[in-house]
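Researcher: Next entry in the queue.
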Amino acid sequence: MAEFKSIAVLGAGAWGTALANAAARARHDVALWARDPQDVLDMRVKRESRRLPGLPLEARVHPEVSLAAAAQADLILLAAPAQATRGLAESLRGLARPGVPMVLCSKGIEQASAGFLSDVVAAVLPDNPPAVLSGPSFAADVSRGLPTAVTLAASDAGLAQSIADALQGPAFRLYYTTDVRGVEIGGAAKNVLAIACGITAGRGLGASAGAALIARGFAELSRFGQAFGARPGTLMGLSGLGDLVLTCGSAQSRNFSFGLALGRGEEPAAASHGKLAEGAYTAPVLVAMARAKGVDMPICEAVDSIISRRAGVGGAIEALLARPSKAEV
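Model: Structure for this entry, 329 residues:
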């Protein structure tokens, strides 16, 4: 199995910073690259990220301004937003050594190509095997070292296990799988469903409605996954149902918070409050892909219609409740 002596995390947002801390606790030296040199300087001086104030960087985390230097690591974690992943991968051409795995740590589908991120990276960096890290995890929890379990997927089982072993620390547990597509779908679709749950909470529709939405949302996620070749067991696991449950009930989730603001009447353009809600970018492409495969996803369609302002929150909810009764499948 592969051995990784050095790790780089590319992207020093909240999640990238948390993963750098987790990898450092797994006894690795970690280069944490940020695009903004001022961010790197601040992290070197203050030993914390402005994205996770009050949470110190581990001693083995080394903020890095040079992408070329960071790209010399044995294992690279891509922690850029989903829609910026292609650009980051393109920047690594000629920098990363052949064979070095690229671990995708964002959750989404590329809008421009309607492509899964593992396919995007495989096309841009054909000599660097892609892997996917996903599961129920909030950045602050991981950065603090609170117990967290996630899934690591790679098409090669030995590689998946090697990466999982490398990143596993005292409170950061990794399970591994070869179902790359299933792990990607769970992470992307749950973000859209978390927006729906936030809308429900913001509208004050009650806990019963929230529970129903999670259950029926998971049915949509499962249908989509089946259409694109995901394994049912993966969708029932950490990266599917586990992540869905976490993000559909907590304001720590940016997607839930975005939905909460929509439900309270804020306009889509302002509801993110300056924070990235990946589900807002995933919703239109997820719906389009579902329609192309004949997959029924009414909750995700409602979210897309609200974000695109084709429907108001009230009208979208009424349309969902007016759907004909059907057998539960």
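Model: The chain has 15 helices and ten strands.
Researcher: Noted, moving on.
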